Hints:
By secondary structure, this protein is an alpha/beta fold. Helix content is 43%, strand content 23%. Strands 8, 9, 10, 11, 12 and 13 form a 6-stranded mixed sheet that branches.
Amino acid sequence: MKKYTKIIAIVAVLAVIGVIFAACAKNVDTGDTSDAQETAKETLVMATNAEFPPYEFHEGDAIVGIDAEVAQAIADKLGMELKIEDVSFDSIIPGVQAGKYDMGMAGMTVTDERLTKVNFSDSYAKGVQVVIVPEGSDIATIDDIQGKKIGVQTSTTGDIYATGDFGEESITRYDNGAVAVQALVSGKVDCVIIDNEPAKSYVAANEGLKILDTSYADEDYAICFNKENTELQEKVNTALNELIADGTLQSIVDKYINAE
Length: 260
Ligand code: GLN
């Protein structure tokens, strides 16, 4: 009899332990939001400046372009919902630093100065700073820009390099490339320094403009992140490299650039 009592006692203790475990497991379940995440995907907020064709521009109500599509492909891989915020170029990095946006993707050049403020993904494209002038301009080379009025997009590398090379007094800053090019068309500035791909779009869209044969600077584009958020940076980098390796990135680029 004594033996049975012992067994019953052990079974009872095991049963109690089992109940406690089950309760804990339940707590863990209700504690996390995995159920909710299945229905509502986590949002990936990307800041851009959608005046930078073919990387990002408006098509009706939508923001389309290479960056928009690559970001969508990355979000799909991460199982996240992409939300694009269209802001001025110079507020992208401060917004990412403040945690307002998860990442910035805007044909953004990696520079040492920016690396002190944000982290960058691996590079996914090359950029070249070029000079747009009116046809018949007396500006034929970079040296001829000295003493001329230069239009740039605020805080872009074109702005930073040209300010350093030609002096603050020669620079007029505009919110975006489209406005800078309009200033060139109406004769307010003598040239615009901007990235080559948007330059091609603007020259195609406005008669009487051309791009100088000599380019001004070569650069790498990458996605920027808050310095604290290395987890997202790594996840995005992995997804980006998969898209590069399987040819998805190239097919997106071809859709907007090489096929033109
Ligand atoms: N590549 C340039 C930069 O990073 C311009 C980018 C842009 O205007 N969207 O400064």
